[in-house]
Amino acid sequence: MQFPHQLEVITPTEVTDAYDNPTPQLEYGPAAPRRTVWGLLQPGSSTEPATPGRVPVVTSWQLFTRSAIGVRERVVWQGRVFEVSGEPSWWSPRFGHVHYEARLAHVQG
Q1: Which domains does the chain have, with CATH numbers?
Q2: Labelling 67: which of 27, 38, 91, 104 has CA 20 to 30 A away?
Q3: What digits encode the pLDDT tens for the residues 16-32?
Q4: How many CB atoms lie within 10 A of CB 100?
Q5: In sequence order, which residues have a C-beta less than 8 Å from that of residue 43 and are 6 or more positions away?
Q6: Is the whole model's pTM more than 0.85, yes or no?
Q7: What is the 3-state secondary structure (H, E, C) of the chain?
Q8: 58-96: per-residue pLDDT in tens?
């Protein structure tokens, strides 16, 4: 499998709030660690949920890569920011070429 797309993966940093709660907020800003991975992105379905006062378009994508992607990470490709939807899966065939698959969501509007 060839991976023609160069992607940037953002790993969030945990930021505690003013009250030191045990569940910190996740920060994806410029201070968050980033790494470059190669993958294959394929478009999936697109929906327009009926939300009062808002007209979002949610597009799903499928990502194949040899680098593990975490549930809380975000993927940037061609100026679009994708969220990981669900738990990414991994495949380890007998001949040893492990690859990972993740469903991504991109929301516009």
Answers
A1: 5-108 (2.40.10.370)
A2: 27
A3: 777 877 677 888 889 89
A4: 17
A5: 59, 60, 61
A6: no
A7: CCCCEEEEEECCEEECCCCCCCCCEEECCCCCCEEEEEEEEEEEEEECCCECCECCEEEEEEEEECCCCCCCCEEEECCEEEEECCCCEEECCCCCCCEEEEEEEEEEC
A8: 899 999 999 999 999 999 999 999 999 999 998 887 777
Q: Which residue has the tokens 């060839």?
A: 2
The identity of residue 48, as a single letter, is E
Take residue 68 and report the two structure tokens written for it: 């593990």
